[in-house]
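WARN retry 2 of 3 for item q-0093 after timeout on previous attempt; input resubmitted unchanged.
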Amino acid sequence: MRTQRLIKWPTIALFAIAGAGCMTAQTYDGPRQPRSEVAHINGDLRFSAGAPMSLVLRKVDDITLGVGQSSVDVLPGAHTFLVDCHIQETSGLSRHSVEADVSAGRTYRLVAETGPGLRECTAIRVEEID
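OK item q-0093 returned
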């Protein structure tokens, strides 16, 4: 019985951490706008769970994102994204400032260009998801 309890708590904690990383930040004032009026940008979770690379949104314009926020809704137009690129194999971390013009009703993701052998991030771009 005690073994079952010990197994349950780590599992519950893992799901709580994973769920916390899925929150979307609203980067504009006022009530939440419908998806058709904002652009949605997805970053990776801060807890990569062994992924070879993760692209974590740190800041959008002048708004710093919280630990549990992995994506943002922004109004259409030009924005500046601060992105951390973590390379698992080398434990490398690089920070990139990315300028992008986004459109309402569209969803975007962060994409890295890497050096040879996936050993470093050379550039980050914001790409529309079809």
